[in-house]
Write a structure and sequence with these properties.
Elements: E1 3-13, E2 19-28, E3 32-36, H1 43-50, E4 58-63, E5 66-67, H2 73-76, E6 79-82, H3 94-104, H4 109-122, H5 138-150, E7 156-160, H6 168-183, E8 187-192, H7 195-201, E9 204-209, E10 212-217, H8 224-238
Parallel strand pairs: 3-8, 3-9, 6-7, 7-8
Antiparallel strand pairs: 1-2, 1-4, 4-5, 9-10
Helix pairs in contact: 3-4, 3-5
């Protein structure tokens, strides 16, 4: 198994005990790995640590075989992410935002423009391409943010709750985009509250609770929700109640 992204005993704790506590996680090439948990389970915190936005207190993270602390521009050009809020510039159109994202990842201007047209079509954004981002609906801003994370065809993709705000058509387009990229060798990590949607796309599912990885779910299982809550309840009963993670 070729690891695109790997966390080894990662720990990042805030005042009061919230954070992540010794998490191991691997995202393989060609894999969609889902991270699920209740609000406050630590999903966003873990993703920030994996992307170098937060420094771990202990443990390590490797991106494409390179320690995050040592990763240079050649590594980061191969990474695409959307954590919490889509990064869009309100005064730029959807197309201009995507051209900028492509250029920032090292794609030449002529190639960037062609790649942007492809991802606009892929995510159903053609009719909004000339609209300034500040005038787009929340769902279409989310689509632009997702497109910006994938426009440069990265080998590592990290998306935090990507289906939030998307309508059913947007969810289907996102699903197809992720499957296509995984089939081409990308390692993809997504977090979600929507277990039914996770089951449709994930190869593996890791459950987080109070900042710890407490088990896995079978995406082909018949009652994913029941299995999820059974894991969380059993974990809650094994440990003292502490302040949640973020």
């Amino acid at each position: 198994m070729t690891a695109r992204l790997q966390a080894m005993r990662v720990r990042r704790v805030f005042a009061g005990g919230a954070g992540v506590h010794g998490v191991d996680l691997t995202v393989a090439a060609g894999e969609i790995h889902a991270l699920v948990g209740l609000n406050g389970a630590g999903k966003s915190t873990l993703m920030r640590v994996l992307l170098g936005m937060l420094r771990p207190d202990a443990g390590g993270v490797h991106l494409l075989g390179c320690a995050v602390a040592d990763a240079g521009s050649q590594v980061w050009r191969e990474v695409g992410h959307l954590v919490e809020h889509p990064l869009t510039y309100g005064e730029l159109t959807g197309r201009e935002n995507l051209v900028l994202a492509a250029r920032l990842h090292g794609i030449a201007r002529g190639e960037a423009e062609a790649t942007v047209e492809q991802v606009l079509t892929e995510l159903g954004l053609e009719r909004y391409a000339g609209v300034r981002a500040r005038r787009l609906s929340l769902g279409n801003r989310q689509r632009v943010g997702i497109a910006a994370a994938m426009v440069h065809e990265p080998r590592v993709i990290v998306l935090d709750e990507p289906s939030n705000s998307l309508d059913p058509a947007g969810v289907i387009l996102l699903r197809e985009s992720l499957r296509r990229r995984a089939a081409e060798g990308a390692g993809i990590l997504v977090s979600s509250h929507h277990l039914d949607e996770v089951a449709r796309i994930a190869d593996r599912i890791t459950v987080l609770n109070a900042g710890r990885a407490i088990g896995t779910l079978d995406p082909s299982g018949t009652d994913l929700e029941r299995s999820f809550f059974a894991l969380v309840l059993a974990d809650d009963e094994r440990r003292p109640v502490t302040e949640g993670a973020t």
